[in-house]
Amino acid sequence: MRHWLLALHRRSQALAGLVLPRRACQAPKTEAHAAPTKVPFYDPSFWANTNFMTTDHPPASAAWFCVRTHSKREHVAARWLQRYLQIDAYVPRIRFRRPQPRGPVWFIEALFPNYLFARFDPDKSLQHVDYAPGIRGVVRFGAHRPTIPEDVIENLRATVGANHVYVVDQRLQEGETVQLASGLFQGLEAVVARAMPAQERVTVLLEFLGRQTMVELSALAVARVGDERQRVFR
Q1: pTM for the full model?
Q2: Residue span of the structural domain in which 100 resides
Q3: Are residues 31 and 87 in the same domain?
Q4: Does 67 lie in the same domain as 44?
Q5: DSSP labels for 39-98?
Q6: Exposed, middle or buried: residue 111 (CB in 10 Å: 0-12, 13-18, 19+)?
Q7: pLDDT tens digits, one per residue of 85-144
Q8: Per the domain annotation, does 214 fall within a domain?
């Protein structure tokens, strides 16, 4: 048990960029002892050489879990799990257009910011996943870590698509609220009065200086208002 706690403590210190003093776990250094070697946490041998788990009970079968990541590190953490731990990780993403000062720009972001899905055997890999780079830990409620049914992941894969990126349909509909992304009225909100997809034009009803005005614009000059992620599950 002491060895298990010491290994866990050294792992947590290494993740913080520290190394546990040698005297805390070994006899005083002599000439026969070699100097300690610090292995970086991103080195696969760092994880392979330490067994966090006990074998007091039989392993559970692999299941899908929700894993919380650091901000903007979902894809990086998933690739690390796949490459070094051979764990199936899934990060559905979304591609959409967002207004910027220089005009509308396409963005690709995680469909669920700061979260990914990973399939693993908790008895074998839970601690490895919890301490992997870019990951805050497996989502839990108290001591319970809920699993995600296989069919939920399969349905999500079918909805997002084979390339793991869902492209939001940018065709505007009458009555939608949009924001002008460029030009003199940049930043103002308007309502789509008429969409002309063939010409890639749109007519909007704009309120300016207390008056409502109809303005025809390029469809690229406006962007929807609201969270585009909600459109994935409509």
Answers
A1: 0.63
A2: 53-167
A3: no
A4: no
A5: PPTTSHHHHHT------SSPPPPPEEEEEEE-TT-HHHHHHHHHHHS--EEE--EEEEEE
A6: buried
A7: 999 999 999 998 776 767 677 889 999 999 999 999 999 999 999 999 999 999 999 999
A8: yes
